[in-house]
């Protein structure tokens, strides 16, 4: 295991350390895709707000310039997974059952944010609603619904 590329080896202990230290970025450092797109997370009370900083590598349309739709979807999906891992203290990474996204407007080359709402959790399946915006929470660039298989 390289020092520059930490891997998720023991999810339960990783999530426990994050809960203990309240350092959610430590968890993101262990997820290669989150590192690649530059994801960050901040906690405000019981709320997590995920941040995708403006980054040239995330551009899909250089004419506008606008974020690649896949980057927006990946950012939102990863936000939901992290939210579930932290608040449900999972021992495994939740697996996507389905993911449905609605793109509402262009995501320009500036910081983007996401919030996740766990709307239902059964014994094995969790339903998460994700909102993504840039300058104003009321002007969403995308919204998504996802179901995850949890342990």
UniProtKB/TrEMBL annotation:
A molecular function (GO) term: thiolester hydrolase activity
Record domain Thioesterase: where: 67-139
Protein name (database record): Uncharacterized protein (TIGR00369 family)
Pfam family for this entry, one: 4HBT
């Amino acid at each position: 295991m390289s020092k520059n590329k930490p891997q998720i080896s023991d999810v339960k202990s990783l999530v426990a350390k994050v809960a203990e230290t309240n350092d959610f970025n430590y968890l993101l450092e262990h997820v290669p895709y989150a590192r690649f797109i530059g994801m960050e997370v901040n906690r405000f009370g019981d709320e997590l707000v995920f941040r995708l900083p403006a980054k040239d590598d995330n551009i899909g349309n250089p004419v506008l310039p606008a974020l690649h739709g896949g980057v927006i979807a990946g950012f939102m999906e990863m936000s939901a997974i992290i939210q579930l891992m932290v608040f449900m203290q999972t021992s495994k990474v939740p697996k996507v059952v389905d993911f449905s996204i609605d793109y509402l407007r262009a995501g320009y080359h500036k910081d983007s944010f996401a919030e996740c709402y766990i709307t239902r959790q059964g014994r094995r399946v969790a339903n998460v609603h994700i909102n993504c915006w840039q300058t104003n929470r009321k002007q969403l660039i995308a919204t998504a619904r996802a179901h995850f298989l949890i342990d």
